[in-house]
Amino acid sequence: MAQPTHSHHETISQLTKAFAFPIAAYDGLVDQFIKELDEGLRVEDAMPMIPTFVYELPTGQEKNKILSLDLGGTNLRVCRTTLAGNGEFDIVHKKWTISDELKKGPGKGLFAWIADRIEEFLSTSCQNDHLEDTYPLGMTFSFPCEQLDINVGKLINWTKGFRGLDVVGHDVVKILQDCIDAKGLKITVNSLINDTVGTLLATTYKHPGCEIGIIFGTGTNCAYLEDQANITKIKPTAANFKSPTNQQLINTEWGAFGNKSGALPTNDYDRRLDQKSSQPGNQLYEKMVSGLYVSELTRIVIHDLAHSGELFAGTAKTAKTDQELGDLAIKERLDGAMMGAFEGDTSANLDVIDQHFKSHYNLDTSLGDRETIKHICQLISARAARLSAVGIAALIKKRELLAKPKKIIVGIDGSLFNKYPNFRQHLEGALNEIFDAATVKAKISLIHAEDGSGVGGAIAAYLACKQLHKI
Ligand code: BGC
């Protein structure tokens, strides 16, 4: 990463140290990651490693028209997917941003709002579909749930800033079904999956052989195919002990890596972000890797520098007050898309950054300020990409996938991976450093999962119908 020419050198070099993640640190962290993945398969109270009730992957030949919904960290989408076989599909969907009131208000209100949106989707986008029987719907829900069946899952805790405590510990499928029934809609929620499971299913539909599904978006997580015999925390008497395929998908909830071990190389900014978060001490890996948090880290750093008179200080070199900084002084008011726009600004004078700070915060920036801001984004996003590679490498090593003759297909979705400038390049660069470039090229294929959550939800609903012999 080149040092900017006009910016504040001392500041930059301190930040570079704080957010450094040296090559020498990879091996130890990958080993620790494998240890925590293994521990989660053996005992509760470790990385969640949640057994799902999905035992098989699609063949790509499935055909049907299916509804799904996708509740992520930022948006809700309701989708109608036509699975056409040969890995082909067509998807019609409608998307709504989830407001702060809904995220932070009671969970029951959020679910009632979702049922309203399903009704709206049916009346605007499915007028020509004849819903004579009760229609199956696959629910993709991007939060940790303890699954008790393919269509039963108790919310363990919210992540990504959601707060509806009234639904924690309750079955989210039942809550949604009750809201749907109250509206008299002919829909049965027949499956519940995590977005990473959806990503894995959707990638496998198009690219048979995929065994790993990952989200690098608002949050981060990973699902993969595990041998049933390795999941020793499932008691032999449990309903999901016997898998017809001897395998089952595991929702790792890897955002929890490092919570207990303290293995992550956190700095003072990370610790402050964690302390001010809705769940201090939780999701520590996610807090260094995913979109919601990398943009918040960036805001904290910029805010600090403005307070100490190192940014936006003008020729008079005056420090800014919170009142002058407006939204920049408020938690989570700088989002991942803005951060991506700063890092992606390649104009000579960094005009995008200039305009943004003027119009959003009424702040004038010098060229040095703008270079410093861009550099902060680069440092934080590059560290996130390197740590992301650590998770991928850990799973590949743990499953000994390099020893298998076939190419390793990793399905990945999420805004950070799909849209953030250079994230994918940094991630691939880090994989080259962990393994080596020739091995990565020959053996590892990172595939952007096309609409993992929406299509994956539809495939899960299809597989659930198949399990019940309804297809
Ligand atoms: C949630 C996961 C989810 C991930 C990506 C995390 O905050 O705990 O369940 O898969 O975000 O959306």
From TrEMBL:
Keyword match Transferase: yes
EC class (word): transferase
Database matches in PROSITE patterns: HEXOKINASE_2 (PS51748)
SUPFAM superfamilies for the chain: Actin-like ATPase domain (SSF53067)
An example molecular function term from Gene Ontology annotations: fructokinase activity
Keyword Cytoplasm found: no
Domain named Hexokinase N-terminal: residues: 12-205
Listed InterPro entries: ATPase_NBD, Hexokinase, Hexokinase_C, Hexokinase_N
Domain of life from the UniProt record: Eukaryota
Classification via Pfam families: Hexokinase_1 (PF00349), Hexokinase_2 (PF03727)
Gene Ontology cellular-component terms listed: cytosol; mitochondrion
Catalytic reaction list: D-fructose + ATP = D-fructose 6-phosphate + ADP + H(+); a D-hexose + ATP = a D-hexose 6-phosphate + ADP + H(+)
Family statement: Belongs to the hexokinase family.
PANTHER family the UniProt entry points to: HEXOKINASE, HEXOKINASE TYPE 1-RELATED
Name of the molecule in the record: Phosphotransferase
